[in-house]
């Protein structure tokens, strides 16, 4: 559900303790979701996991069998398009999940439909997120989404949403609209939880500010919030009603965490109510003061 598949790890890291531990945590969380919440209550998720549980519902075969078989083509595609290390990580994750689904005796946690959808999604998200952190994957749709993204220009999110919409329509047709709605809730819960696990609660955000009082804004960000800034020389004005009116200005850019951005935006708005601000999510930051301060 999160898009970090293009990263490759050294071969020596494949069986490292940290990588293996993250995979095991993820596999256990996914097993709790599947055996403790979803299968006993006939609930489904999106992706290949949803298809596998759907096949379990129709044909009563162990869910790990279709999950493994459905993922194999995507592991092969990942080997060709991403690399050998990724394919080994992915295959190891799937084998561990198959073992866990067979040997872990997980009891039914609850029969409440809302709790099943919410907490089933939480544990699925934890499972997917920790496995990705360990370098693997337990849902091959991420691989085809990355490949199709590059080939057809569609975003990974658009591709996954299109595939999952088809799955939810099938669920609605065969199992009823209510089950489909709960499955959508499970999917979105898993999506957000896996994002947090992979990116962290301190996901970095780029904050850009254009203000006539740029010296004040620079001082506030650097000296009050202790954040480094980058300054671009720009031009403000060019409004529809006064197109010819323009002024040179400094465009101030800083990188902050998700937890900090609201506080800094409030402080800037109080210092200069006319300041123009916009934020952008950042996939990765390397080097410089930001990396040393945040660990990214």
TrEMBL record:
Keywords: Cell membrane, Membrane, Transmembrane, Transmembrane helix
Protein name per its UniProtKB record: Uncharacterized membrane-anchored protein YitT (DUF2179 family)
Transmembrane portions of the chain: 20-38, 58-79, 86-107, 113-132, 152-174
Keyword tRNA-binding: no
Domain of life per record: Bacteria
Entry GO CC: plasma membrane
One Pfam family of this chain: YitT_membrane
UniProt membrane topology term: Multi-pass membrane protein
Cellular compartment(s): Cell membrane
Organism lineage: Bacteria, Pseudomonadati, Bacteroidota, Flavobacteriia, Flavobacteriales
InterPro entries linked: DUF2179 (IPR019264), N-reg_PII/ATP_PRibTrfase_C (IPR015867), UPF0750_membrane (IPR051461), YitT (IPR003740)
Domain DUF2179, chain residue ranges per copy: 247-287
């Amino acid at each position: 559900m999160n898009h970090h598949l293009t990263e490759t790890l050294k071969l020596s890291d494949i069986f490292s303790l940290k990588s293996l531990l993250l995979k095991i945590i993820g596999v256990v969380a996914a097993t709790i979701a599947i055996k403790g919440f979803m299968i006993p209550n006939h609930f489904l998720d999106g992706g290949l996991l949803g298809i596998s549980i759907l096949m379990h519902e129709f044909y009563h075969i162990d869910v790990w069998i279709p999950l493994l078989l459905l993922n194999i083509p995507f592991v092969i595609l990942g080997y060709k398009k991403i690399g050998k290390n990724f394919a080994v990580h992915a295959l190891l994750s799937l084998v561990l999940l198959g073992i866990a689904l067979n040997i872990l005796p997980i009891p039914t946690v609850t029969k409440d439909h809302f709790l099943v959808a919410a907490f089933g999604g939480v544990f699925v998200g934890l499972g997917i997120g920790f496995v990705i952190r360990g370098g693997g994957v337990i849902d091959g749709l991420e691989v085809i989404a990355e490949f199709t993204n590059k080939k057809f220009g569609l975003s990974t999110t658009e591709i996954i949403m299109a595939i999952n919409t088809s799955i939810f329509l099938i669920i609605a047709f065969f199992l009823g609209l209510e089950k489909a709605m709960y499955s959508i809730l499970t999917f979105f819960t898993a999506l957000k939880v896996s994002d947090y696990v992979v990116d962290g609660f301190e996901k970095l955000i780029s904050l850009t500010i254009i203000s006539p009082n740029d010296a004040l804004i620079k001082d506030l960000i650097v000296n009050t919030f202790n954040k480094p800034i980058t300054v671009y020389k720009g031009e403000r004005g060019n409004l529809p009603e006064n197109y010819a009116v323009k002024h040179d200005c400094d465009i101030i850019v800083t990188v902050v965490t998700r937890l900090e951005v609201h506080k800094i935006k409030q402080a800037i708005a109080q210092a200069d109510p006319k300041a123009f601000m916009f934020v952008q999510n950042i996939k990765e930051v390397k080097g410089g003061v930001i990396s040393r301060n945040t660990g990214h």
